[in-house]
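User: I've been going back and forth on whether these two constructs are worth ordering. Before I decide, could you fold them both?

Assistant: Sure. I'll take them in the order you sent them. The first construct and its structure tokens:
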Amino acid sequence: MTEYVECDELINIANDCNSFKELEHKLGNIDRNTLNRVFEYNKIDKVDFIFNNMPLALQNKNFMQNYRKYEEQYKNHTVVSVDILAEQRDTCDLTIRTYHNFATNAGVIIHNSKATLAAEDVRFARTIERIQRIIISELTKIGIVHLYVQGYTDADLVNFELGLTNPSTIYEEEKIELWNNKTSLASSMIQDGLVSTEWIYKNIFGFSDDEIKNEDDKIIFDYKQKFRREQIETEGNDPAKSGESQGTPSDMAAGRTGHELDGEIGPEGGSPPGGHEGAGRPKEGPKYGKDGSARGRDPLGAHDKKKGGSGSPKYGKALALSHLDKLKGSLLKPHVKILNESEEVAEEYEKELKS
């Protein structure tokens, strides 16, 4: 049936037609409804088809009266360069890297969509990758046979890898973008505490239990290597050779030098027989204000001073008053007067003032 005319055949016929009426005639005297079904079958927009595939119709003023209003949206192209091809080539094989658009001498503008080209490139790359996997598998078998003939056995037979260059950079970029999306999703889920690390390994990255264990061991090894490089850079010490760390916060807090136990711990570990020399609680030196101090319990005499100046019965009488009482007991007898030179001088001074 006419409505099943393929797109390429329809375009070839339309290039020489100046109206739909002429196109209908060349398709077998079909009517307009049948032509519309042809467009629907090939998923073609009628207006787009006129401006891109019917150059003679664009010059037909009577035909273009109904479609002139669409003309502006098809006049947004600028001629960058003109290349003359020496041989005849199919327009589907022409690729314009930068602009992805080109026009034929008939005035037909053809668009090579970058997205379409990228999709074609990826499909081609996937096809080539499948073929490469088959080739690598067969070459690996040949390599194993070759190594066996050469005298290699056991693990040495498979101790090699073969690889072929990927045919598409776009395919590589898509794979990188996919990995970026996966890592971003995993990081976000870990930060939000939604799932465990094991769940992410299995469901996002598709790791098996053995692969998870293997990657965990490698991550620990990476941390060790990172610490080793930091020690070499900052302290000039290689922990892999010296067997010790230097300058870490724990070393600084403990005041370790890294040589405290050199030659003292045997292969079985622990302390040597009899213990380390000087081990145990250190002897305490004399403390100020204690009996063991060089100046005794009361180096400043604070207690005696307090005792001497106090009238409390706890300490008895003050020291000076105690001596005075003893003097009074021995010197003050009946009819005995204590000579006081200051009183005599005062009396003589008063007599002189009265005379």
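The second construct, handled the same way:
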Amino acid sequence: MKKVLKGGTVVSGEGCKKADVLVEDGKIGAVAPEITDEEAEVVDVSGKLLFPGFIDAHTHFDLHVSGTVTADNFETGTKAALSGGTTMIIDFATQYKGESLHKALEHWHEKADGNASCDYGFHLAISDWNAGISEELQQIVDEGVTSFKIYMTYDDMVLDDKSIYQVLKRLKEVGGIAGVLPFIHQRGVDGAHEHAQPGDDVFELLVTLFGRHGARQRAVGVREVAQQGAFGAGDVVSGDVSGEVGGGFHHVAHHGFRR
């Protein structure tokens, strides 16, 4: 099936220009000032901006974490994505402790296959680490999953420093990249979940240090110190392995943005 989108303004990385767009079997076949194709349906898009489909590279659909489940699954989430012009998502398939990496991907395919309305791919969060998983990692990369996530938070997903070092070292060997969630989990001042250094003693020290301030200032202070510690640890490990860790997620402190 062919369509020609006529009269619109094409928006690309090179700028904006008036042009027609030929779409065939869901793919862009041509972009030109004037396109005529007798077999194509003509769609008048005069006065419209034509964007390429967006890619959302960070989604969490149907993710069970910390005693809850994310609001959207692959059916509702991808429909919402398409309504906003996103035509591909990359979701974080997650290995739960005790699972192999292949089992984790199989689980996520069960969630996504036949339920997604747009294109999708997977990152893979590594939540368990041993010699068998290290060996399996080469197969996962060879099969097309090359980006991974490491958690420094959440009891069900967190890896210790030694495991993080080994994962990054192994990823360098197999040609993968990693993103690190650079927070360290702890209870908040009022019992809610907060990000702080591991261990109650450290948290209490932070409360002592920032306790002279109001609740808001204290929480901000805890986040600042906690994320500086997490990024510092991550920098040391990733720098020793390869000099490039890929990136960090969910910054809450200006230190994290600067790093």
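Notes on the second construct follow. The CA atoms of residues 131 and 166 lie 10 Å apart. The helical segments are 74-83, 101-112, 131-142, 161-174, 200-210, 215-241, 254-258.
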